[in-house]
Amino acid sequence: MSDRPILLFGVTGQVGMDLRVQLAHWRDVLCPPRTVVNLLWPDEVRTYIRVSRPSLIVNAAAYTAVDAAEDNADEAAALNADLPLLLAEECLQRGIGLVHFSTDYVFDGRGGSGAPTPSGRRAYREDDRPEPLNVYGRTKLRGESAVQQSGAAYLLFRCCWVYSLMGRNFLLTMQRLAREGRSLNIVDDQLGSPTWARAIAVAADEAIRQLGAADGLGGLERFGGTYHVAAGGETTWCGFARAIMDRVEQWPLPRWPQDRERPSVRAIATKDYPTKAVRPAFSVLDTAKLREVFGITLADWSQQLDECLQNPP
Ligand SMILES: NC(=O)c1ccc[n+]([C@@H]2O[C@H](COP(=O)([O-])OP(=O)(O)OC[C@H]3O[C@@H](n4cnc5c(N)ncnc54)[C@H](OP(=O)(O)O)[C@@H]3O)[C@@H](O)[C@H]2O)c1
């Protein structure tokens, strides 16, 4: 076994936090936060890689603020497009494997060529044509392409609607608004699969383990590539919000008062909730490839929500 470390970027993010725990089960993991390596500065990134000599780079860092990206296209591009290119170049040059993450928002929402879903559309397969609708999706797609075309050995995991009990996400926002007694008017015409960050980290760690990718390129050159990693099933943001409210008694501290009514969620249309960035109306990912190659299947989204709420950090 190589004594070279794994280098993880984005450790303070939702997926990064769980990756740190998963990967540390069996290796040294270097996790420089922004104060040590600012990923907007290519020289800092290169120097850190050259000095730390990792066997594998795992990049969970990204510019993920979908609406803010519309006004901060340069920063979004630097994180989501230029950084993956730089990492892939370094990896190719130094014989290091690369694990990178991308998004369902590379798709336009019209549906793909994969398995039919209960809403009557077909999930997106890895080779369906991306057609992003917003700056975030376009910058993430550029990052994907840079990795895919670099010649480096890589695993690229496209994820969908990520949440966790840490960081910034829809679950925590819904809990905060409900606790503040705010009305919950949530869009009911965008479909996806809410996915627990820990389930993504566990799946990525398992794929890395199976490929022996932490010890060098291992099986990455043969079985690397792009994979969809998402919870099973589909729902809308409104459906997800209602499932969160159905579980108030499972919420972590502070406990929901027993005499307080459960918050109700009102369904609205996307057109009644204008946002800076346009979002795809449907971004369910077909995960058959992950199952066929690695034998990994993520639980249904509602089961994952239960597990997340029962496992506070
Ligand atoms: N969130 C979603 O719903 C979603 C959906 C689909 C796919 N994805 C993809 O999944 C991956 C992980 O997403 P996530 O939700 O875990 O992300 P996240 O919680 O927003 O975390 C982003 C990470 O990037 C770091 N970062 C940003 N700018 C940086 C900079 N200049 N220097 C150093 N670090 C910087 C952040 O550090 P700071 O804490 O210092 O800001 C943080 O650790 C990303 O590739 C994302 O595109 C996310």
Reported CATH architecture of the domain at 6-166 and 194-232 and 283-300:
3-Layer(aba) Sandwich
* Distance, first to last CA: 30 Å
Residue fraction in strands? 5-15%
Strand order of the largest sheet: 2-1-3-4-5-10
Mean pLDDT: 95
Order of helices and strands: EHEHEHEHEEHEEEHHEEHEHH
Weakly predicted, low-confidence segments: none
Helical amount among residues, as a percent range? Answer: 25-40%
Structural class by helix and strand composition: alpha/beta
**Counting H and I runs of at least 4 residues, what is the number of helices?**
10
Classified in CATH, the superfamily of the domain at 6-166 and 194-232 and 283-300 is NAD(P)-binding Rossmann-like Domain
From the 3D structure, determine the CATH topology of the domain at 6-166 and 194-232 and 283-300: Rossmann fold
| Gyration radius over CA | 19 Å
Shape: globular
SS elements, strand count = 12
